[in-house]
Amino acid sequence: MKNIIYLLAVVFMMISCEEKMVIIPEFEPIDSGKVVYVEELTGVRCPNCPTGSARLESIQALYPDNVVIVAIHGIDLAKPLDESKYDFRNEDAADLEIFLKDWLGKPSAYFNRERFQELEAEGLWGHPASGQWQTYVERELEKPQVMEVTIVKTFDPITRVLDVTVAALPLENISGEFKVSIMLTESDIIDAQDDVGNIIEEYEHNHVLRDVITNFDGDSFASQFTKDQAQTKTYTYTIPDDGTGLWNPEHIEIIAFIANTEGESEEILQAAQEHLVD
């Protein structure tokens, strides 16, 4: 009898140790007309920021038409390294970093400037856990789209003058206190970066905030949107040519978004992105 019990136990162990095929479902992106605006607080002295940037790049690769990213090198951990060629800091980036308080540390990310309840309960606005960032993007993508935002631009490469018009087409009637923001970012910048204590001298920096054409927190745009009636605003800006190797028109992106700032809200309804040079 003992031998039978032992034999059954061995058979059970063999069965339970048998490898089973795990079927991983194919990724199905959310079909959405929304474009999510992502702000990343970062810095060249931030040792964990390359991991955060890589996470955002992977999310944008999943949703290339639905995610725009701005990397803000503001105050903390943003001072150039000894190995740095460039200084990514600017007044608008510093103002935005202060505006986006409170956050736990860098990297930290914001998604349409939405104040998610579970983080607000901890006194935070920024999202420090990069492993959760895709979830927040998808939560925003699942919301109904209420507006189309379009960027129309002309750029003269000789004078470096940019004329940019932002058009907002509401898909329903909306009231509030709406602001427009237009930002310029630059990608493909090769410069030093701290990566967990290891200085990478030829790190590729992308989506770096270079300037804000509007006020850093946006310009007044409208108080009422009527369905299917577009509203526009136009700006003129000269792209700097400072001789440092930055401000390369081929690598500059134009970001625009409309936010409803009524009451305590800063929620961004829709964003758009265009390359400066097609």
Structure write-up:
The chain is an alpha+beta fold and 278 residues long. It has a single domain, classed as Immunoglobulins (Immunoglobulin-like, Sandwich). Helices cover 18% and strands 37% of the residues. It has five helices and 13 strands. The chain has helices spanning 2-16, 49-62, 91-99, 117-120, 133-141, and strands at residues 36-42, 67-73, 108-111, 147-156, 161-170, 174-186, 189-195, 198-205, 208-212, 219-225, 231-238, 252-260, 267-275. Strands 6, 9, 10, 12 and 13 form a five-stranded antiparallel beta sheet that branches. Strand 4 (147-156) and strand 5 form a beta hairpin. The longest helix has 15 residues, at 2-16.
- The CATH topology is given as Immunoglobulin-like
- The first-level CATH class name: Mainly Beta
The CATH fourth-level homologous superfamily = Immunoglobulins
Low-pLDDT runs: none
**Reported CATH architecture:** Sandwich
List the secondary-structure elements in sequence, H or E: HEHEHEHHEEEEEEEEEE
What general form does the structure show?
Answer: globular
Please, how many helices?
5
Number of domains: 1
Determine the N-to-C terminus distance.
81 Å
Number of strands: 13
Q: What share of the residues lie within helices?
A: 10-25%
Mean pLDDT: 92
Largest sheet properties: 5 strands, antiparallel
